[in-house]
Amino acid sequence: MNATRIKKQLQKQWRRWKRRSLTLGLSSLVIAMVWAGMYLPDKVQSLLSTKPPVAIETLQYYQQAEAKSDPKEDANFWKLLNKSKEIKEVVVRHSYVCGEEERSLGKLTVDEIYNLLNEHPSWKGQFEGQGKVVLNETIHDLSPTCKERAYMSLDKDGNLSLFDGPPEQDKVIKTFFQLDINSMESSLPDDALRHLYDGIRIQDIDEYNSVLSTFSDYAREG
């Protein structure tokens, strides 16, 4: 992708960030029209059916989540659960694209754990320590805490990173890839660069994917 094309893409992306609320409103209107059964021109239908590219980080997240699902581990968990005489604590662990949260369900019987897993087939059980059962749920979204506090910006080494709070607080949650600063400065509009340095507020998974996809064009190789 040449510099001119990249610059145009970033300018469009920048305008999209600034008009996010308007875009969401228009998207809701289009969805309502489709739901009502209205016929759209073929070209519009084609656009609606075209899926946006998935960010590299999110694709890796899916692959890692699928890799964690091991039939042997599942069978071993059921075997241990059947033999359990006492369950001291049951915890549901929500693993997000950004962030992780837990909530305790207290003491449950083996039958109650069975019922929970039957109601939530995507959950994966495991034992942690004696008598502690963890039910893992993988969620393709940002955690509530990330939605309230997350920013994307550059760390001190020039890596695109996710921060807990404004970048000046230097609380890095996750590092993605190193950016080619010279290429960015020669291609991007000044206000887009300034926004990146100051920190781009990330409030949902769409913004997360959008920023990753946009700046992946400037990732250094190797």
From TrEMBL:
The chain crosses the membrane at residues 21-40. It comes from Paenibacillus albilobatus. This is Bypass of forespore C C-terminal domain-containing protein. The keyword Transmembrane applies. Keywords: Membrane, Transmembrane, Transmembrane helix. The keyword Transmembrane helix applies. Pfam families: BofC_C. Residues 141-216 form the Bypass of forespore C C-terminal domain. Gene3D superfamilies: Bypass-of-forespore C, C-terminal domain.
